[in-house]
Write a structure and sequence with these properties.
The chain contains 5 helices and 5 strands. By secondary structure, it is an alpha/beta fold. Its main location: cytoplasm.
Length: 156
């Protein structure tokens, strides 16, 4: 299964890329995690934010692989504990060849992206920096995979 983490924004600090890559490379070939970045359009004082969000959303939608199961990361989504995420990952692996996880920009996901999603996942009630979300998602997917495979990484 191919998991694409599709998010807005490029040129993240080195520590963000290092953290994401560390967990992504730990996943096996049958469950790969790839980062796909969409450039964030410039926000100016008089920018039409709704239009920018819509344009960025169109780019995100164009990046989603055909027939992918789409999951929007959204504060209104379902909160999964580690065991529940492990069950989700198991289901995704057995059901889909491609999964797309969508992370919106400063204004959140475009309406069209939210409508395309089949599931909604909330990482926290807290507002998290989008850079950090990349690392958290990668680590949690690796943790879920380690539980599925009786790997000693998860010791709770």
């Amino acid at each position: 299964m191919q998991i694409d983490l599709i998010c807005l924004g490029k040129n993240r600090p080195t520590w963000v890329n290092t953290g994401f890559n560390e967990y992504a490379k730990r996943l096996p070939a049958y469950c790969t995690l790839t980062l796909k970045e969409i450039p964030l359009r410039k926000r100016t004082k008089n920018a039409d934010l709704i239009r920018l969000q819509q344009q960025e959303g169109e780019q995100m939608l164009a990046t989603i692989a055909p027939n992918a199961h789409v999951i929007a990361l959204d504060e209104r989504g379902t909160h999964w504990n580690t065991i529940q995420l492990t069950e989700q990952l198991s289901h995704w692996i057995s059901t889909y060849s491609k999964v797309a996880l969508l992370i919106g920009g400063p204004e959140g996901l475009a309406t069209a992206c939210s409508q395309r999603a089949q599931q909604y996942w909330s990482l926290s009630h807290l507002t998290l920096p989008h850079s950090l979300v990349r690392i958290i998602v990668a680590e949690q997917l690796y943790r879920a995979w380690s539980l599925l495979n009786n790997h000693p990484y998860h010791r709770a």
